[in-house]
Amino acid sequence: MDHLFRQRRISVPKRTSELVALVAVSCTLFLFLHTRDLSTKLRRMEGRLNDDVTAFNHLTDRIQTDRVEHSFASAQEYKEALEAIRRHTGAERSKPQRTLEAEPEESQEQQLAEQEYLDEALIPEAWELNNTARAGVELLFFNRVPKVGSQTFMELLRRLALRNQFGFHRDAVQRVETIRLAPADQQVLVSLVSAHTPPSSYIKHVCYTNFTRYGYPSPIYVNVVRDPVERVISWYYYVRAPWYYVERKRAFPDLPLPDPAWLKKDFETCVLSGDRECRYVEGETHEGIGDHRRQTLFFCGHEPNCTPFNSVEALQRAKRVVEEQYAVVGVLEDINSTLLAFEKYVPRFFDGALQLYWEELNTFNRINRNAFKPPVSEAVKQIVRANFTREIEFYEFCKQRLHLQLRALRDPGITPPSPTRARGGRRKRAHKGKL
Predict the structure, then answer these.
(1) Do you know which SUPFAM superfamilies this protein is assigned to (predicted)?
(2) What domain range is 101 assigned to?
């Protein structure tokens, strides 16, 4: 038997053996060099991460904040917070001397590529931000915030209903608009909205309402926000516009006319004179549609702790509801990103919205145009902004989430605005003198 196996052995030429040995040595050398390069990159990335964490800890040790938790709603918000920390603490200057002059050009390019890779890796997948899939029924609920272009979006949705074949329904005009409802009234609203045959949409000025609490499937929630200060200025002149009272008198003939002195009062005088109407005191509560300072109220809900103006609790609750319940919260100042996100995340209702909007731009621009709204100086706006800190934080949160949703699509044809561009707004000319 041993003799048989010895006869079946295959002889390997000497040159072939040498070739195999050479390939093995080459592979070993290549893996060693590649591993050393990766190890160097990893140490460099760990160094930058440790610098960021050190700067963050240094800032949080020195500065007290009124936020209950140091949590960030998105990876984008976290990265921007770190960048702000570097700017304000001088962390960039205190880093080890990895200066531009000390490193070759190729190393800087590698660092940029690595940073871009990390930025991309931190972006969640689109399905993680898509609350549309969590809805229990094809019912769009647009609990529209006043003075955010909601009339324009409502007309756009009405036209899309014809194109995309779904029902369009809205609340009737009321003498006194009630946006914060008692539990019994919430149940009536939920049953009324849920009675429409899917696919349908329903639009109403009302706070966020939890449908599942009353035994009904959750709808697809959408809404739009606006710069809080621009919004209160818009409301201030909207309720003083002559055509506003003409429409109100037609609907309700017994409605009394306002004081002419009140109608003539301009916003700048109201703020600078310390008028009660324009003080915007933190913690104040005011029931009814007549007080539009609290944009967060439409996302926080009907609970009493949602009513104080500019409160931490209302802010945190509104953020959580947006993150967990709303498919898309658009931004009036960035109409393109808003309509694109509506199309991508709620296609059943908003397919073709962007094209339809720009095709009918002249029509949409005439909706609620207020020619009686004079310009307001930046100095006065800054005075007002000082009292809107948490309302502004909520607005910026919604804007960051909108742009994160677009980046999560990973579509090379979509370029979300950078943070600096987003602050300036887009397509301002299309909304000039409007709303």
Answers:
(1) P-loop containing nucleoside triphosphate hydrolases
(2) 82-122
